[in-house]
Amino acid sequence: MKYHETPVKVRFNEVDSYNVAWHGHYVAWMEVGRNDLAGMFGVNAEQIGALGYLAPVVSLELQFRKPARFDEPLLVRTSVRRTHTATLEFVCTIVGADGVICAEGKTVHVLTDRNGVLQYRLPPVIDERLEDLMTFMEV
Hints:
By secondary structure, this protein is an alpha+beta fold. It has helices spanning 24-39, 45-50, 124-136; strands at 4-9, 53-54, 57-64, 73-81, 87-95, 101-110, 112-113. It has a five-stranded antiparallel beta sheet with strand order 1-4-5-6-3, with helices on one face. A two-stranded antiparallel ribbon has the order 2-7. A hairpin with a 5-residue loop joins strand 4 (73-81) and strand 5. The mean pLDDT is 96.
């Protein structure tokens, strides 16, 4: 599976009393990677909002493999999965400086209008942009 890499670094405020990155920050790093990749195709959170839609997370899975530590450079590897519904699915792997996987996860997003009305079909402009993303990612 092809992926896009976004570098992040574990900051001091992201480390807990065990001297490892607090588990909640992995979700934020996934979001950074997801918005970085999606932004290349006009479908990050801000860009979807500018089109009059929202893409809230309805499912989040995250499995921890190895703790990340203060000042460690990480790579957030983000990809997408093609779905048969009007949802977006992003797959993420966070890799440590030693090349070992720290965490793996995915998010599923639905599309709503600004009033929260669920969209059962993707609007053409978003559908076109997602198709460009899928083609780029070879999905």
